[in-house]
Amino acid sequence: MFSDKFGLTEAVLSGRKTQTRRIVPQKDLDKACEFAIAYFNETFDVFTDDKEVLQHYFFVEEIGKLPYKVGEVVAIAQRYKDCGYDPNVQKIWTDKGVIVFVNSPISQLAGWTNKLFVRPPLMPHQIRITNVRVERLQDISDEDCIAEGVCKWTKDRELFKYDMADGFEMFEWRDMPRTPREAYAALIDRISGKGTWESNPYVFVYEFELMK
User: Which percentage of the chain shows pLDDT scores above 90?
Assistant: First the structure.
C-alpha cells in the first residue's frame, strides 16, 4: 500500500520511489527487549535495562525476522479500475492460474474503487525488496528523502524547494521547505499522523526495485 493522495503509488510505478519506511509496531519493540535481555544474559552475562541498547541489539541480530525480507516480491496495491481491467470481466488469467469471480463482474467488487480489498495475484505490478534495516525515523538522509518520493522544485533554477510529485501538494510555493528532510517530515505526519516525525519512532526501512 502506497499513498495515492501524495502520488506515492505513481512514484513507485515510475521507478522514482525506491524506499519506504513503516513504523515498527509496539509489540515488536516489546519483543525486542525480551529477546535481547535473554540473549545478553545467557550469552554475555551482561545485564541491562537500557531499552535503546536492547532494541538496537535485537534488530541487528534478528533482521531476518522483519515482516518483509530481502528478495521477497510484493504486489503494489491498485484499484482494479486503475489496472486496465474490463469492468464486465468475471474471469482473469494470472501467472498462477485462473481467478474466477463467480457472482459478479469485477466492477461490482469492493476492490474496483478501494485498493484495500484487492487480491495480490491480480495486481499487474510488483516490487522486489533489495535491502532491509531498522533505524530511527529522523536518521533519514536527504538522499533517502528523495528515494522516498520527495521532489525538488524551482522556478528560476536558482532557488530550490521540496514537495511531492505534482508540486504544491503539501505547500504553496512561499511555504515550501528548503530541505528534503523538512518535506519528508511533513509527508510522514500527513500519512502516519501529526507528531510522528517529532516522536522519532523506530521504522523498518525497505529498499526495493520495480520489477519489469
Answer: 51
